[in-house]
Amino acid sequence: MTRRDKRVIVVAGAVIVAALGGVGAWAAAAPGSYGRSHDGCITVSMPSTTGGALVHQCGAGARASCRRAYAHQDKLALLTRPQCRLAGIAG
Question: E-strand spans in 1-91?
């Protein structure tokens, strides 16, 4: 291997490390639109057969889910109520 070949490998490795670091920083800074319940949208993490499920609803669907959550006492209802409060949707 020549010095030039080694330099090319080092530069390519540095570019790859910088790209991965950038992607990691972006992923940490912008977790996505389902990050939390707010502004009329609810996001509920609930247990499912595969370990867990994320339910995200906005508008009429969120209002209907919140009405159901305040009308029942099951596990899903109890998980949904705090998210309804965060979203500003009263039961």
Answer: 41-46, 53-58
